[in-house]
Automatic annotation (TrEMBL):
Domain EAL: 1-255
A GO MF label: cyclic-guanylate-specific phosphodiesterase activity
Superkingdom of origin: Bacteria
Protein name (Swiss-Prot/TrEMBL): Cyclic di-GMP phosphodiesterase Gmr
Gene designation per UniProt: gmr_2
Range covered out of full length: 648 to 902 of 1048
Length: 255
């Protein structure tokens, strides 16, 4: 309860930041955009990572307020990118299950897009985890269909770690599947991870999804993902999440 109050205070005080972790195309290294990762510049604790505060507020209404801030911040960044002549860079944001259970989620998204008319809706992507569908895949399917109708993309995050991945692939109107970093990281040590990645790539492409490999920590990981047919790479081997102010320099220095 204390943490919830502190998050509300931090929101009002402008302490949250959306850092950017690049996503690049495996075939040629082109920068495709970034995943937005939440950070809290806490006046007492310094820079706090989501793992230190999200789990404790995930079931609280403040999660919706924080998610709303993330959405607006992402649209502000997308609008700026467009003004800078980069309308095709995509920005994905993580959406908590609590937000998806909010009956007003799609209305809020629609309003946010209207409030940031310069942000191209197609450049925004919502990352959802499979466990968000635990309370019924039908409701989630309808909600995501509305988001897609607004032009926004949908990524299934941490793919392969949930319980009914295949049913969700079939039902959810996704555009992207993100291979969980646990499979990618051990790809050289564990032959079964390699087979799992091959399987996810084949499945993703069969559903016309873009396949993103997460946890790309080295050049070798990227090279192997490319050979396995994945489309996009994200991970520390490319860059760690950075404050938006560092993004232009990173892009200029990439390759
Ligand atoms: O940034 P980091 O790698 O520490 O992220 C840890 C976890 O927090 C990841 O599972 C990520 O999906 C989640 N996360 C990061 N930013 C957000 C956010 O803005 N909203 C939600 N709901 N989860 C986030
Ligand atoms: O669950 P999600 O995929 O949104 O989580 C993203 C999290 O993974 C962030 O906390 C980010 O810091 C972390 N991450 C991103 N790239 C790498 C990587 O190459 N290796 C490891 N170990 N973690 C990573
Ligand atoms: Mn994610
Ligand atoms: Na992930």
């Amino acid at each position: 309860a204390e943490l919830v109050a502190d998050v509300r205070r931090g929101l009002a005080a402008g302490e949250f930041e959306l850092h950017l972790q690049p996503r690049v195309r495996l075939s040629d290294g082109a920068v495709l955009g970034a995943e937005g990762l939440l950070r809290w510049r806490h006046p007492r604790d310094g820079l706090r990572l989501p793992g230190s505060f999200l789990p404790a507020i995930e079931q609280d209404d403040v999660m919706i307020e924080l998610g709303e801030w993330v959405l607006h911040e992402a649209l502000r960044l997308l609008a700026a990118w467009r003004r800078e002549g980069r309308p095709s860079w995509q920005l994905s944001i993580n959406v908590a299950a609590r937000q998806l259970r909010d009956p007003a989620f799609a209305d809020r998204l629609e309003q946010a897009l209207q409030q940031h008319p310069e942000a191209p809706p197609a450049a925004l992507e919502l990352e959802i985890v499979e466990s968000s569908a635990l309370e019924g895949v039908e409701a989630l399917e309808r909600l995501l269909a509305r988001c897609r109708a607004l032009g926004v993309g949908v990524a299934i995050d941490d793919f392969g770690t949930g319980y009914s991945s295949l049913a969700y692939l079939k039902r959810l109107p996704a555009t992207v599947v993100k291979i969980d970093q646990s499979f990618v990281r051990d790809i050289f040590d564990d032959p079964s991870d390699l087979r799992i990645i091959e399987g996810i790539v084949a499945l993703g492409h069969a559903f016309d999804l873009e396949v993103v490999g997460e946890g790309v920590e080295t050049v070798e990981h990227g090279a192997l993902l490319l050979r396995l047919g994945a489309d996009v790479a994200q991970g520390w081997g490319i860059a760690r999440a950075m404050p938006p102010a560092q993004w232009p320099d990173w892009v200029a220095g990439w390759r």
